[in-house]
Amino acid sequence: MNRTKSSRSKMTSERRPLDDDLGQRPANSQGIEKLESWFSRQSWSPFSFQRECWASYLAGEDTLLHSSTGSGKTLAAWGGPLAEFLNDPDEQSHWTRKRGKPAVPPLTVLWITPLRSLSADTESTLTQTVEDLQIPWTIQRRTGDSSASVKASQRKQLPTALITTPESLLLLLSYPESKVNFQYLKAVVVDEWHELLGTKRGVQTELALARLNKIASQATRCGLSATLGNTQQALEVLSGVGRNRRSRCVRGESSKKIEIRSCIPKQVDRFPWAGHLGLTMVSQVIEAVEAARSTLVFTNTRNQTEQWYRQLLHARPDWSGIIALHHGSLDSEVRRWVEDALRDGKLKCVVCTSSLDLGVDYSAVDQVIQVGSPKGVARLLQRAGRSGHSPGEASKLLFVPTHAFELIELSAARTIMANLSSTVDLVKRSEPNEPSLISENATTKVSVLESKDPILNPLDCLTQHAITLALADAYTRQELMDEIKQTFAYKDLVDEDLDWALRYIVHGGDSLAAYPDFHRVTLEEGRYQVTNARVARMHRMAMGTIAGDIVMQVKYASGKTLGTVEESYITRLKPGDCFQFAGKTLELMMIREGAAIVKKTNKQPNTTPRWGGGRMPLSSQLAAEIREQLDKAARGVIQGEEMECLKPIFELQEKRSMIPRQGILLVESFRIKKDFCFCIYPFEGRLVHEGLGALVSWRFAESRGITLSIAANDYGFMFQSKEEIVLDQQEVSGLFEADYLVEHLLKSMNATELAKRQFREIARIAGLVHPGIPGQTKPGRHLQASANMFYDAFRQFDPTNKLLAQADRELLDNQFEINRMRQALERIAQSSIQISKPGGPTPLAFPLVVEQLRQRLSSDSLEDRIRKLQTQLEVESR
Amino acid sequence: MATTATQLLKYGSIELELHAEKSAWHAGTETLFCSDLHWGKEATFQRASLPVPVQSLDSILNRLSALLERLRPKRVIVLGDMVHGTSSFSDTFRETMRQFWEKRSRESECSWILVEGNHDRRAKSELQRWPIRIVRPPWRFEDFVCVHDPMELPTFAASQLDFLGLAGHLHPAFSMPDNGEKLACFALQRNVLVFPAFSDFTGRNLIDLKETQSVFLIRQGEIARYSPATTLKSQTHASS
């Protein structure tokens, strides 16, 4: 059903052949001409990728614009709809009429962004263009931060262009009037699509797109993304299934030069510790910051951000006021202030986390410093690309290792990037004529970039969406199935899962007898609908929050908010504990009404918040290259200043044990005091190693009745026992047997606790628990329950509940990276096992020994664990 | 490794047997103590369209029935929050409870005493129909002062060792320092023993260790004593 009388060529039966020269603008396009002349008035010239995006839009195609760095994506997506309007500004369909007079054009462009903080910048860019071009469009934002009055007025009349988040969009779609308000939609832009892809929010976006397609099938989709290993698939997910619309990948300009250098430590520790914050490098970083105009210092965790900010200020008190910090837990007002000051070039330096990975580019920034391993090449490129936006300037990145081995990671990243730049040309030549060529001929090279695998069939998102749709309008099972199946995520949805989800929202679960008083969605005459106003209110309240960890506000007693911290962290603190947050040292006074009340203090912080995020594992591409670099080092081939610097460490490693080589799995066996330790180095990233650790530990307990303690990092893992363990090569390979992998993993003691943690997010999305939404009224106290409680109750009484199975599956995929683990086991099976007995920790083992002291995953019985703790305490209290 | 399902708490001349079932037994008076049963919570949740299975009530009742059959107590003292609230009294719940009380009256002579808790207060009119005696805290029983919220304890008991306060309300839990696992526990804080919630479908609150001499941790049918660091010395002294 097409209500628009658009002049777009997709409406005509004639389609432009694919092998057209797409860089050229279509003939007779007034709109494009006006756009081009606006560009030249700014003394700019459109990039060819921008022209290609405009043409793609005018041809009615879905587009995915991707580039590893660089800007201009916003105008690439925005130009198409503008040109279309300018082609024929008087065209009737552009206007809604109020008492015969033309009013504001109806919602035409929907701009979905994953980050609220991005929306303000997008709004100002879009507003500027329509003002300059004298286009009578309104542009507004709607996010969780928007005021109630704005939200209310938007429910009646939406602006011509709306910038919003997936959550807020779904909220709008839950109202019956969405059918009217969205009907003239022409373009949906999904900004930072790579951030959404592979997440539940991405699935929610897919579901929202499917609904929009039902309301306004004429709307095309445009994704803006970083370059991924699976860009083609990213387009497929965006475009959905069965829409019968052509789609195209467009590669953004990435001709920008990137200069990367390492901050080589003056003295390389012979034993690099894990978890150092790299603070010994402060003076070198200060020198670098001094020399640049404006610097972004990226760290991997919010903890590091706080520490670095403190150290920089400590070393240079005169920088107070011109350096700042920025991370996702800070209050939005604080963040906005930092962003504005950065834009105006007022800040010498900002210490930040991935919170500044995305978004507008700050032209003042001419240097990026990366503290600690970026864990993947795509991230390194993206971060480097945050600097050097003045014409002709290169992106500059300075890498600061936090321990010596990270220098190998950078060296590996450099090698990958060198391969990549030769690949880029290859890709350029084969696109867009024969996209299939890329996957066949260049797989090995293209795959050096990380992929983001889309999530398939998450039932929590399905149940959530089924309720959302039931709020908007009554639907039949078939209507739901048809709509859902248009998404990539649910294209293979089986009847069984859909029926379970429907039973869940109507009856509470499979066993009818278990939930006699449950009513969420009513089923009448084959149509599903929400009739209960309270259900509607609670659902809308819950769906507005972003899936993620549960957070708590940090406030002064006066009520001023500083930001948020994960609940799991803050509840571990006692009143009186001091911690570093928002660049200040704070003392916890109490936890009241879901907020942590703090005061400023001069005391030394005794703890820094450890946020959940940020502990990303090494990407498999980077890990593979590290193995290669080590292999070269073992053969005496040492290239680059990073590897050169590590020479003494390599020598020591080789002397005591050996440098791991390709085709060999190194096992080191030694004793620390009375403990027997084994270190194994598969180099597969922390998550895989944690999984392997749990697996080996469980198999040990089964076959020999010995309990082990496990520690893991990105390079390998260690297990330790009080009892003597002797292992030969055959026994080692037995421990890494791929048979019964999943069964054994799930049985390992940790699995239950981890699955519970995984279940938290599922419980929230499926509407079991209500998140602590700052500033919003919670349901009554008598309705508070934690995800853990539901997990236990379902496990015990409703074990076929499909949300439990989803928790297990997500645990395997996300926590243990099961596919990567399988590959690792395959590789291990083909390697020869080398057991060395170094007599003590080697340079490679040392970080693991340190890690071991910090965290213990044990499988002891409760009494044993208590005895251990008690003995420890007795020793300490002596 | 042998596991234990009971632990003996000695407090002055008072002896209480603590069960991994989250109940306690006073042999001298043949009394069973438990707290925070939150019967009917599943119905309250279902009414708010949150799917908590009814079996979670059955499991509480079954665990309790098993204890009653094993110990044959003269009385049961519930330290508050026997029911979750007025909204718990659905038809299904009423029927389940009717059957429960019928069975109890058939099987043994046992008096039930409920020390009124905050949740009970809301459902008082419903509770009065049950064969139980409702008392207001603080309520003296032999060597014990029974309350729901520890704050309800009168100050006179604070200095006297021959009284032991018994309370619930807090749903005490302890976070294992080794892996962060949150375990339900009995907590001995000065002269008050705080009971864990008998119901499994309840939240758990971490206890303030400064105030606590001993905790009795419960995990999968096992109960074990643990004395936090601050009181370690006095504790080892007392137990020797």
Care to give the gist of this entry?
The complex is a heterodimer of chains A (878) and B (240). Helices cover 43% and strands 15% of the residues of chain A.
Give a structural overview.
The complex is a heterodimer of chains A (878) and B (240). Chain A is α/β, with parallel strands linked by helices and 878 residues long. Chain A is 43% helix and 15% strand. In chain A, the strands form six sheets. Chain A has a seven-stranded parallel sheet with strand order 5-6-4-7-8-1-9, sandwiched between helices. A six-stranded parallel sheet of chain A has the order 10-15-14-11-13-12, with helices on both faces. A five-stranded mixed sheet of chain A has the order 20-19-23-22-21. Chain A is globular and about 80 Å long. Chain B has a single domain, classed as 4-Layer Sandwich (Purple Acid Phosphatase, chain A, domain 2). In chain B, helix 3 links the parallel strand 5 and strand 6. The radius of gyration of chain B is 18 Å and the shape is globular. Chains A and B meet through helix 21, helix 30 and helix 34 of A and helix 1, helix 2 and strand 16 of B.
Structural class of chain B: alpha/beta
So what's the oligomer here? heterodimer
Q: Write down the domain tally of chain B.
A: 1
Tell me which protein chains meet in the greatest interface and how many residues each side has: A-B, 53 and 49 residues
Q: Ends of chain A: how far apart?
A: 81 Å
CATH topology of chain B: Purple Acid Phosphatase, chain A, domain 2
Number of helices of chain B: 6
Question: What attributes characterize this protein structure?
Answer:
heterodimer, A: 878 residues, alpha/beta, Rossmann fold, 7-stranded parallel beta sheet, 6-stranded parallel beta sheet, 34 helices, 28 strands, 43% helix, globular, disordered N terminus, B: 240 residues, Purple Acid Phosphatase, chain A, domain 2, 9-stranded mixed beta sheet, 6 helices, 16 strands, 24% helix, disordered C terminus
